Sequence to fold (349 residues):
Amino acid sequence: MSTDIKSMTLPELRAYLTSIGEKSFRADQIYGWMHRQLVTSYDDMKNIPQSLREKLKEQMPLTALKAADVLTSGIDGTQKYLFELSDGNLIESVLMKYKHGNSVCISSQAGCRMGCRFCASTIGGLNRCLLPSEMLDQVYRIQTLTGQRVSNVVVMGTGEPLDNYDHLLRFIHLLTGPEGLNISQRSITVSTCGIVPGILRLADENLEITLALSLHASTQEKRESLMPVAKKYEIHEVLNACRYYFEKTGRRVTFEYALVGGVNDSEQDAEQLHRLLGNGNFHINLIPVNPVKERSYVQPDRTAVLAFQKKLEKYGINVTIRREMGRDINGACGQLRRSRLAQKEEQGT
Fold:
């Protein structure tokens, strides 16, 4: 059983309340307040006796993130949230508005230890994994602050989700459960840099979520130069795990490919990518890399991006270019958090 009340399942919460001498039906009420009404304080749970509320305050602090900053794009309305955790750690979340509904990209860790060369999230390393409640509350706070329903959730912010596997799995079940927000599993995407044991394990969980692999290269050598994790999990081993995921779930895998100018965007890269992947049940999402000031990588120009897309399409590969969102508000993963941490370092706090 979790020791964090917002990370508990409903049966666990019933068992906990019974163990402290309370009626089990109170669990259904409290669960509804947390996961449907999205309250941030026990004091807001109006039909819960004062004595029980006081007992819970002492024994089970209620996870509630604080918005330390909110930036809104003047280009497309994308909103980037910087949330502060109870221990002072900072994490990022992004709200993207589409015609088909609101999508929220959440973080799974405070910091990251994967070390991908083009990513701001990993600068400074991993502080800690997030609790299921801290992952949930990014969605809850954004829905509360905007007053608009969240219909899609992407676990693609700061951190490697499969490096926080058990909490990720609990988060998915809580978010998609009928007693909570009841978001469809098909509306959840989990992104990984290629933790093979985690991919294989996830394939056997009987879920309907979408798996996105951060591929970013067409050869093992090039992938190693961009992503240190590739030294542990060889590219063909990772792709075999993705094929297993598709076989077990019937869910088409998305391959994320961050285009870095002069690094992985040549015609030869496109040819090698086709040889590597063939024409299976997958989709390639091209992402013109967002420049990060601590890194030297540059974004290819629009002509180069379109040429790369056309080359892949000629091979019969299903490919799209990800629409850039929030470019004017440090939209790339980890940029806002990194800038706030740098400010704190300069101020000596």
